[in-house]
Amino acid sequence: MPPQTAPPPAAWPRSARFTVGVLVAACAVLLFGQTLLTSFGARPTPSPAPRIELNTASHADLVLLPGIGEQLGARIIKHRDDRGPFKKIEELRKVPGIGPSTFDRVKDLVYIDPPQFLVAREQAGAPLVEPAVRPGAKSKKAPTEAIPLNSASQADLQKLPGIGPKISQRILDERARKPFTSVSDLRRVPGIGPKTLEKIKPFVVVN
To answer: Which of 7, 10, 89, 134 is most buried (most C-beta within 10 Å)?
Structure first.
């Protein structure tokens, strides 16, 4: 007698094969989706850069801004020291090397705190600058034009906020020893600290 062979396995019903195929496809889609989510989730979301106050920012703070390197950061500091605090962000365009494209990159990352004085509104065609006045304090009329530090008289210097006869004379004495090369050089004068310097910066220039 010829050897007996095992009968072929019974074929699965079509509905069972269809169900298995759907399950396999669903598992594949699920695994693929988890892989995508994991890969995207592994990438850290960049946090927004903190905004920087222009008039108090250090050189290290400024170089963190996009497009601002060591040289531009130093120029911003020098511009602020020589010409006084920035009154509006657009004044950054006056800094050598900051063009329209660089300005557009940093304008939303910087801000200016409200100054201690009311700035520049034109009345009758001439700019008017008024100092902030505390209640009960005597107001002092601020100069309407910038005072040149290296040629101003003692009377002109006394027009500056916080500068009286004694400090104005000290300014003249210090200037006689060595002319001022920047507004920040006023810190050499005894009696002129950081707060006084900030008050008078907007009203003086180095000639």
So the answer is: 89
The first and second tokens of residue 50, run together, are 């903190």
pLDDT of residue 137: 42
Measured between alpha carbons, how far is 50 from 53 in angstroms, rounded to an integer? 10
Three-state DSSP class for 72?
Answer: helix
Domains and CATH numbers, the chain: 50-114 (1.10.150.320), 127-132+141-207 (1.10.150.320)
pLDDT tens digits, 25-49 = 666 666 665 655 555 554 544 445 5
Q: HSE-up of 136 (CA within 13 Å, CB side)?
A: 0
* C-alpha closest to that of 129 among 199, 193, 185, 192: 199
Question: What distance in Å separates the CA atoms of residue 163 and residue 183, rounded to the nearest whole number?
Answer: 15
Distance (Å, rounded) from C-alpha 157 to C-alpha 204?
9
The string of pLDDT tens digits covering residues 92-102 is 888 888 888 88
| pLDDT tens per residue, range 172-200 | 999 999 999 988 889 889 888 888 888 88
